[in-house]
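Handout, section 4.2: multi-component inputs.
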Amino acid sequence: MSAVETKVKEVKPLLSKKNRALMVDPLSDNNPITIQVLGICSALAVTTQMKPTAVMAISVLAVLVFSNLIVSVLRNAIPSRIRIIVQLTVISVLVILVDQILQAFVYDISKQLSVFVGLIITNCIIMGRLEAFAMANKPGPSLLDALGNAAGYGWIILAVAFARELFGSGKLFGFQVIPDVFYEMGYVNNGLMLIPAGALFVIAIIIWIQRSINQKFEEA
Amino acid sequence: MFLVADLISIFVKSIFIDNMIFAYFLGMCSYLAVSKNVKTAIGLGAAVIFVLGITVPINWLLLNHVLKEGSLTWVSASFAEVDLSFLAFIMFIATIASMVQLVEMVIEKISPALYGSLGIFLPLIAVNCSILGGSLFMQERDYTLSEATVFGLGSGVGWFIAIVAIAAIRMKIRYSDVPKPLRGLGITFIITGLMGIAFMSFLGINL
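Output:
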């Protein structure tokens, strides 16, 4: 969370109103996960613990920012018929870099994330942003758009991981936060949070809260 | 005989126990977007079975005869130490994108009727996580060629079952009194979670 958030804060004061909207909208009003419904796969699969989730959020941030920049710079040179292949190539090169870096520096977490690092390639958020934004805008706004969307994605998956790790195993970032006294009094970790279905319920609750606060997102 | 039993076990396991949707959440984007109606869900599901069944074995061949360390010896003995496995991602996605394109063209030529019902979904599939996921799991689990093919088909069938089931439930749920903020996306997540729990009952089965 912290890495994603500080980045947002550093740039904010420099921005015009329009550019500010590019970054702030994806945090809630146009959130990639809860409103645009993109990138759900990884959001659900890696979120049993905070640590791998934070690594995942940072990886997606890196890939999204650089691919948005590169595609935006190249946008006039890419023939529209083969744009998907070009975009996929850009993304996969970046993902290979991220994967190699993770394997070199945080091997344990990279093993834990297993195929999901590779699956950043098909993460719909990245393709979606490239198609919807980077192909039609200058590098500057594309960078902001990427930062905003990556932050919007990051805070949701971290929120899900927070709930799942806290209630599922009584820990945060691997440290026990629920004191032993509670367990002695009969408190039991909630196993539901650790199984795949737990993630779906947590996201459903986040969506429920968000849509009750902001009723314009309700579906008929 | 042992081999056949092994293959059947992988097939059943990939459909029910390691279901792409309920155990790994792969292909959720199209699963949520295209599940409003059973007919289109069947079309997309069939296309996924098809593409998974083709791309997993092809990627297996690429992985074992081009990318892995020492697998290029069939070209020249001096390549014995070349290890290209870090290129796996880009090779896999290139295979998938080109296969999807190829399949689309072939179907259009051979059977316009099938193209009419399946064709619009094919481009969507290139970026469906379950397809790339199939190839990556194949790489991680060290399958043989026949196992990889069966695994690809089985995962496709599992995905098909999941999307058709959720589409049917979503058609029925339109008549139910769901709390307003939960309608649409929220309730779909909850139903998927409940279905996932139901599918967990297959976990105890040992084939």
